[in-house]
Amino acid sequence: LLGMDAELMPLLDQANIACGVHAGDFETMRDTVRLAKQFGVEVGAHPSYPDPDNFGRTSMTLPKERLIEVITSQVETLSQIAEKEQYPIHYVKPHGALYNDMMTNTELFDTVLDAIKHRSRPLKLMLLANDQHSEFKALADRKGVELIYEAFADRAYTDKGQLVSRSQAHAVHSASDAISQVSRLLEKGVIISENSLPLTFPVDSICVHGDNPEALKVVQQIRALI
User: Fold this and answer.
1) Whole-angstrom Cα distance, residue 191 to residue 157?
2) I need a surface site. Which of 2, 39, 66, 213 has the fewest CB within 10 A?
3) Is residue 69 within 8 Å of 39, Cβ to Cβ?
4) How far apart are CA 107 and CA 143, in angstroms?
């Protein structure tokens, strides 16, 4: 387990678990599922491009069937572990570049939907809340996939409602800026973009990255706000 997982888990409602491609292995997946079960935290699969050297944060162009295979194999790996622990997964949230790419490429988003729609146990898809939510919902409805819209506490937003690239110095918020962003979202229903434009969209979940050194501090304060 990552160093803060044991401290973070009691504060969470949902936990995205890496499926062994960009990070994680059998032991970390099993132990994280067990920890989530202990605290009643809903778990989701967090699949990525096959890009372990760059933590899944480099875009890749894969044929549709290959990408479906990449996603389904990761989801199935975690699902089998979770089933053995009698604590099944409930949703899929793509990681890193795959997540960002599906939010700007309708064809890729459709491929992600195809990768999860045929499971015997239905899984929801978590995606970035933005002003195109109705278009994404229409695509998902055609495939019979329910969506979970999430906002990020610790990431900056572009004026179009996408996440600012990590190549930019201001892409990741400090703890104080993250708390301010969540507080504003809870009180006024808006997120302020990098150029001070108000962004408004439906939000079901708030994300804090577990690899952020200030994650525990941020989550503790968010939990206090909620």
Assistant:
1) 8
2) 213
3) no
4) 13
Fill in the amino acid letter for 65. Answer: E
**Pairwise CA distance, residues 221 & 15, whole Å:** 17
Per-residue pLDDT of the chain (226 residues; tens, 9 = 90+): 456 788 999 999 999 999 999 999 999 999 999 999 999 999 999 999 999 999 999 999 999 999 999 999 999 999 999 999 999 999 999 999 999 999 999 999 999 999 999 787 889 999 999 888 999 999 999 999 999 999 999 999 999 999 999 899 999 999 999 999 999 999 999 999 999 999 999 999 999 987 777 889 999 999 999 8
**Amino acid identity, residue 195?**
N
